[in-house]
Amino acid sequence: MSTNDQNAKNETQQAETACSSAGPGMITIFFLVGFAASMIFGWVIFPELLYSKKHQPVNYNHKIHLDLVDNGCKSCHFFREDGSFSGIPGLDNCAACHEEVQGESEAEARLVEEFVKKGREIPWLVYSRQPDCVFFSHAVHVKKKEMECSVCHGPIGQSTTSRVYEENRITGVSRDIWGKNIAGIKKHTWDRMKMDDCAECHAEMAGKKDACFVCHK
Amino acid sequence: MKIDRRAFLSLSLGAAAGTAISPVPWKLIDDSSIWTQNWPWTPVPPVGKVTYVNSVCTLCPGGCGISVRKSGDRAIKIEGRDDHPINKGGICMLGLSGLQLLYGPTRIQTPLKRVGKRGENKFKPISWNEALDIVQKTLQPLREKKKTNELAGIFGTNQGTVFDLFSRFFQTFGSPNLFTMPSAENISAKGLEIMQGVNSPISYDIENADYILSFGAGLVDGWGAPGKMFVAHGDRKSALKQSKVRFVQIDSRLSNTAAKADTWLSVKPGTEAALALGMAQYIIKEGLYKQSFIKRYSNGFNAFKEFVNKEYTPKKAAEITGLDEEIIRFLAKDFTKAKRPIALFGRSNLENAGSVQEFMAIHALNALVENINSPGGVWAKPSITVNDLPQASIDDIAIKGLSDKKIDPDTDDSSIRPHRLIAAISKAKESPVSVLMIAGANPVYQLSDQKSVLKAFEKIPMVISFSAFMDETAVKSDLILPDHFYLEKTAESLTPPGTQKPILSLQKPVVKPLYNTRNTGDVIIKMAKNIGGSVADAFSWSNYEECLKQRLSNYWKVLQNKGFVVDNSYKPVKLFSTESRKFEFTGKSKSFDFKLASIEGETKRFPLILIPSDSIRLVADGSQTPPFMIKSLEDTVLKGNDVLVEINTSTAKSLGLKHNDTANLGTPRGKASVRVNVHDGIMPGIIAIPRGLGHSAYDDYLAGKGVNYMSLIGPVEDTVTGQDAAWGIRARLSKA
């Protein structure tokens, strides 16, 4: 064996030693660290980053109102004469009772001072507003097919405060459309309002998923 | 521990695996696809309460009922009104795209005062008080110096309350120099006055006629009330198989209307009336006319007969028109065989309609078949009577001004000859007009003989425009008092051209005025009040709406609720209002007088004839064509910034031109660079140029595209009314 060969062998051995310094165990650990970090980012940090949090202009208590009005949901969310739906009731609905401040709640005072007295419409943030590319008619669903409000909107009528409105920073759409569960898993019909959720029900009712232009005009 | 390459790769691999089963990639793909479908810069109407406002479209005189959908305060869609008697739910491209004009960038947003040189388009925004102050300081000295006839005005129409206020202002101020833009309605009104003794434009019961012989009328190219014509055309088409209605179009080019007709006969341009006379000669000679009617209820028949026998036998008419003699005879027979045949006057979309003599030649056919004042026939356009404004008293200054020299010596209340105003100013050393007011018209674009128009505008010391848009005339003004746009104001719309039942519709504000503009009616009232004395006394209304209400008081409630008043049971009275109570073939003169309207230019220098072509896709009256319509033009009309003129294959061959070639077009009045559209839908020797292009004003979609037809021609006066009746001009075309 020549000296040269000897040298080459030594170098190979050294290299092997260096490798084994991060032996198979270490490689697994690094893999797991990377895996865990991206999982934490994806499942915990990412949703926090993706959605901005906004508060409603007035903290609204559905339950209190529902107990006071005669006509249930329809007292404020009614069909107008032309068939359009008062999804977000106009200020005149509120003003009918809240012309003067009643009680001591802060929200009440704000409602009267900021909006009713100034005649300004309340810029409600709509949890269930679909993007502009979607056509939706309440009349068809509620009047013709007699669907309950809660099928899509859940037990909103029992809420006592307005929850935080989360807005997608990329699309500007409410988080309620994708659903609270970032994985998109739903337990109730009202947990998500994505196209697949519409299509699921359309498929059940019509036997097929329906054509694109039924909703995308 | 040392982090080497392997460790790093392992970390990345772990991160990638983790990311793949985290929501990050899937959610981002979903979000980005939603984002691309809802780009924040794509204009989307604001979410708001949806409402509908009914009104009338006044972008043309057609008077279609419209229903405007609003979301909150914003108008988002204009649709035809289903229950409106004119358009029955239909709407044209222009009516549909009104919102592009309403919200577009060419609106004038506040009163403006010129600061740069005239025509430089440099203006300073001023307040309404300041603006009215300037008007007052300009007008008052004319009253003081008793030179009130130095005030002149050009108005778009001679109908409606705003025009009446304008006219009243001129009368009480003391100026006889109020001009209105001429229209075919003036021609047919004069013709009917001579022949039937009623000074009202003609209307045709097209829907109930069974033979429609159109002498160049562009029935689906914007003629009359376009909305109504489309409905009539649709009804005829859907009934085509069972229907016995014949539709014959006489047209020198294959217009859209000619393409939709059962028969298209191409005659030399300007000779349509000669064909009518040739037919009349044959009808009379063969005794095919309604002899008892002609004998009992007409005057001047013998003179007419003598004239056509001498001058317009089918043979002679064939020579003039270029049609076969046999075809003229056949057409005459065919026409008289029908039960309810009508002969229609009014070339293209009625803006280059023809002369009174041409009207009379064509209308004589309707008399020969006795289809006047009966269903499926023709009669004078009826109107719903509105209250007159109370008589105004005028002071001595005004009396002097009104009796002083008039610019147009033939003026009564107002003149339909604005070209005379232009001629008078451009020829004079010093302008006889010191203040010119312009409302509802764009004369700098609309009037022919553009060189004189520009020269005249240079000379007038003060030009005041009431335009809602920065059009060619507003650019050349010193002061602009912007009007509201039609969707922002109240006005009345009277029976549209060619309509056989009396209709009155109310134009209502659809949206609140977007800018600091004012209704011209209100501005006139304010101007009059500022001048004071008897001028102010004549304008006792506190505002324009009060005046409008007074005029329409009999119908105000119905108009408010329903939006229109129509007399569906209207039937014309079977009566002629002439002195003789008979139909007059020749009028008061003993002989029938007819000459084909002349055309400017020498045949030698200008061997071809240039005519305009009208299309429903272009606004030709000087207003703006919205982008939506411009984008719908075929590339045989407009290619880039070049307009294409139509020529026949043989004309192109003789000139050595191929389709799309650039050519120089010259007329005695101007020249232009154009491209050629070579096809056989036009006779040899003729050039047709689209009207409505060649604007220097308005937005990038319109300005600088094509050539203005009016810059290539000059006025030719009608022998009876004196209004401009030019239908074309001699021209030459050469390869560039």
Spatial ordering of strands, largest sheet of chain A: 1-2
Q: Mean pLDDT across all residues of chain A, rounded?
A: 86
How much helicity do the residues of chain A have? 40-55%
Low-confidence segments of chain A, given as residue ranges, are 15-20
Total number of helical segments of chain A? 9
Total strand segments of chain B? 28
Count of individual domains of chain B: 5
Considering residues with a beta carbon less than 8 A from a beta carbon on another chain, report the largest interface and each chain's count.
A-B, 38 and 35 residues
Shape of chain A: globular
In CATH terms, what is the architecture of the largest domain in chain B?
3-Layer(aba) Sandwich
**Nearest-integer average pLDDT of chain B:** 93
Structural class of chain B: alpha/beta
CATH topology grouping of the largest domain in chain B: Rossmann fold
Radius of gyration of chain A: 29 Å
Biggest pleated sheet of chain A: 2 strands, antiparallel
Give the CATH level 1 class of the largest domain in chain B. Alpha Beta
Largest sheet of chain B: 7 strands, mixed
Gap between N and C termini of chain A:
83 Å
Share of helix of chain B, binned = 25-40%
Helix-strand makeup class of chain A: mainly alpha
Task: Give the percentage of residues in beta strands of chain B.
Answer: 15-25%
